[in-house]
Amino acid sequence: MSPTDTTKPAKVAKKSPALKTSAAALNKAAAPNKAAAPKKTAASKKPKAAAAKKPRVMAAPKMSSSQSLDVDDHKVTVGKSFSDNAKMTMRNINVFYGDKQAIYDVNIDIAKNEVIAMIGPSGCGKSTFLRTLNRMNDTVEGCRVEGEICMDGEDLYAPKLDVVELRARVGMVFQKPNPFPKSIYENVAYGPKIHGLADTRVDLDEIVENSLRKASLWEEVKERLHQPGTGLSGGQQQRLCIARAIAVSPEVILMDEPCSALDPIATAKIEELIEELSQNFTIAIVTHSMQQAARVSHRTAYFHLGKLIEVNPTEQVFTMPEHQLTEAYITGRFG
Amino acid sequence: MSKPVDHLNKIKHSLRRRNRAEARFRWYGRVAVFIGLAAVAVLFGDIISKGHGAFQATYINLSVAYNQDLIGVDNLTDPDELAMGNWQALPKAALRAQFPEVSGRSDKRKLSGLLSSGAGYDLKDRLLANPLLLGETESIWLLADDDIDTYYKSWLAGDAYAARLTDKQIIWIEQLHQQGQIRLQLNTNLFTRGDSREPEQAGIRGAVMGSLLTLVLTLMLSFPIGVSAAIYLEEFAPKNRWTDFIEVNINNLAAVPSIIFGLLGLAIFINFFHVPRSVPIVGGLVLTLMTLPTIIITSRAAIKSVPPSIRQAALGMGASKYQTVLHHVLPLALPGMLTGAIIGMAQALGETAPLLMIGMVAFIVDIPGSFTDPATVLPVQIFLWADSPERAFIEKTSAAIMVLLTFLIIMNTSAVWLRKRLERRW
Ligand SMILES: Nc1ncnc2c1ncn2[C@@H]1O[C@H](COP(=O)(O)OP(=O)(O)OP(=O)(O)O)[C@@H](O)[C@H]1O
Ligand SMILES: [Mg+2]
């Protein structure tokens, strides 16, 4: 039985009162909603075919009459959640903390070399979603992920996949700067060391310098490489963490509110950096700042109470959101 | 307009109350600290006042003739002959030469009672070290008997305690004192000898060595085991009913009276595995059982205090669980672990009850040199001396307590120093 089996949503519906009411709503609701439900199960049966069915999903705006501010009525993500040039594909993702479901049926692609921003009210599951991408949820007690996540067509949750390798390919920058209590040099050199990326000391020095340069930190720290990384300012520490993440040349970088602890100047530096990095890396960034999402991202995904409501090019999300919930959020009606 | 003023007055009023409460609280604190310090001061004062005397011993100066006929030894290199030698004859003859007027069996015996019964053997050692002395005469300070020692010290202090001494003995001491032939000298025996039935010959070297051997073994066993258990429980073990059960039991174990560990050691190590009694191996094993819970609990606390963000950072870099622990968690938790270990060791150093159960309370004269030599430990030695009837053991007991306290202070200070030192690295 594959995790994307059609029986899954039914099971979840039995467990979750939120979905029970939504099932009731579904029965009473207008016809378009009824039409949406079978479509979705069809998509979940053959997740890989979902991308091909893109036009059908993109037809969603026509159903906008059925949109409401009640998230229970929400069934299908509106907008352009899929891509022809996908780096990562995620199908029917459900995440649970114990009995509590945190992510409901998320389908999305992340394209190569794009910067995708995740926005949404606090507690809507942005961090949870981001952590499924490098399996950091594995380290959370009681957390269970269902669905299919592939990177370059390879199933990330396959039993034979080694998370160590995965995390070398998908790096992560956390909300609070968390440099190791070691020297700046050792912070950056740690990843290459444990993955055996440098054969000689000279190679390692080069990797460290390049990473620090890419993180635009080199000029500030080149004189004090062997002083503790914890002695840097908050913004410098965060850039050090970015340097540390890119030192292993990952393909994807996940950033969970990387600027929330920083002042505007440090934030501007990091944003500049994200733009530069997007030439070589695919970046998924969670942010609470809509301006930031607008400035750095190509596409924006709006989450609400564990559901992916809308994914669209950033410009469109902030000028002409398709879904009422998105509009309500970006106009500040909640969040 | 009156309202804000009223408001301010209220605040001022409540502020006065708060300040008073704070001042009172500060005084409670000071009194509590003072009581604690006073208790320590009284304890130390009492022990030092009783024990300082033990660091000195009474010696009597006599001219000793190394008379070959008296000893009955021809060949100083033959161990058998040396063992047969009548060494006690040397100090006796020297005393009789000092007090030629003494006659009668009883008086003569009292006279030779001025010196320690070990004086003859001290002379033997001296002669073996300098064989050329044979047939010569030299003036030498010999160790006095413990009764003489007690009397002389109390007499010097102006509060003479005669106890078992006869009037004649007291007169002899006074004569020796007038001629400057009796004095107090640093008591090296205390630090160089093992236990003895004769207080003046008893030392704590044996007990110190026994404690050292036992503690080394305890540390070598309990630190690695305790730290591994703590790391496993904190970082690797699933959190389920089993690990809860284990946690509860470790906490229970920490609260079990230590004598029960002694009984356990007796049943398991001695009766079942037939490890010999009284040896540091058993002591070390029993104390390991006893200190393990302490070390596990403190190590777990130290591991818990490592910020989770560091673990996340390492895991997010693709470090394995093992690498995360080894490279990041352990170095940060080490100061706390070492502090816990030293506190555990200090506890083990002061532990008496379980060691009584496994026979480390035996009277052992020889200084233990290995883990399998019968030995006793400092606190047990204190117990043994405190239990001895001879008055001279009172000050010995206090002296041994002083030595034990010194070791404890050194260990606890080094715990604090080590923590400061390791923490200051970043
Ligand atoms: N370790 C956990 N155990 C149980 N529930 C959790 C855990 N982590 C998150 N949750 C729950 O999952 C939901 C989503 O949490 P998540 O941290 O992903 O939100 P978020 O969108 O990142 O919020 P924020 O913007 O405040 O960071 C929340 O309801 C939260 O309470
Ligand atoms: Mg979050």
Characterization of the model:
- The complex is a heterodimer of chains A (335) and B (426).
- Chain A has helices spanning 7-15, 17-28, 31-45, 54-58, 126-132, 163-169, 184-194, 201-214, 218-221, 234-246, 264-277, 290-296, 314-319, 324-330, and strands at 78-79, 86-97, 100-111, 115-119, 143-151, 154-155, 170-173, 252-256, 282-286, 299-304, 307-313.
- Chain A is α/β, with parallel strands linked by helices and 335 residues long.
- Chain A has a single domain (72-330), classed as P-loop containing nucleotide triphosphate hydrolases (Rossmann fold, 3-Layer(aba) Sandwich).
- A seven-stranded mixed sheet of chain A has the order 1-11-10-4-9-8-7, with helices on both faces. In chain A, strands 3-2-5-6 form a four-stranded antiparallel sheet, with helices on one face.
- In chain A, helix 1 packs across helix 2 (17-28), helix 7 crosses helix 8 and helix 7 (184-194) packs parallel to helix 10 (234-246).
- Chain A is globular and about 60 Å long.
- Residues 1-66 of chain A have low confidence and may be disordered.
- Chain B has three domains: 2-52; 55-193, no CATH class; 205-422, MetI-like fold.
- The chains are: A alpha/beta (335), B mainly alpha (426).
- Chain A binds chain B through residues 134, 136, 139, 141, 163-168, 171-172, 174, 176, 178-182, 190-191, 194-195, 228, 230-231, 241, 244-245, 248, and chain B through 239, 307, 309-320, 323, 327-328, 332, 426.
- The complex binds adenosine-5'-triphosphate and magnesium ion (MG).
- Adenosine-5'-triphosphate binds next to strand 3 and helix 5 of chain A.
Key attributes of the depicted protein:
heterodimer; A: 335 residues; alpha/beta; Rossmann fold; 7-stranded mixed β-sheet; 4-stranded antiparallel β-sheet; 11 strands; disordered N terminus; B: 426 residues; mainly alpha; MetI-like fold; 3-stranded antiparallel β-sheet; 18 helices; 3 strands; binds adenosine-5'-triphosphate; binds magnesium ion
